[in-house]
Write a structure and sequence with these properties.
two-stranded antiparallel sheet; 1 helix; mainly beta
Amino acid sequence: MPTSAYTAQFTTTYSPGAYRSDIQTYLKSGTTAATQGENHDSVFLQGTKITMVDITNPARPAYYYHECKSPETSIPLTEFTSMATGQSYANPRGNTVIVEDLLFVGD
């Protein structure tokens, strides 16, 4: 298991209503490797701990957590649990164009 952390920030602008309801948002392991120009078999290893910070509203950031129980190549954002409420992350809905700003820290 690597002993260092990795941080990535993704800002997306989209209209949730423009997509079919069965399309889910994922954190993909290949994104990490592709960003760094490395190849690590594109897998989040068992035991990897990932913190997601929703900084869409920087005055009220929301913190979420996920730990890989087995090797994973992608993680639905709904698998992240709120550190404040214990509830799962809810993918945005509606027909309005939104800007979503998510920060991920993997360790």
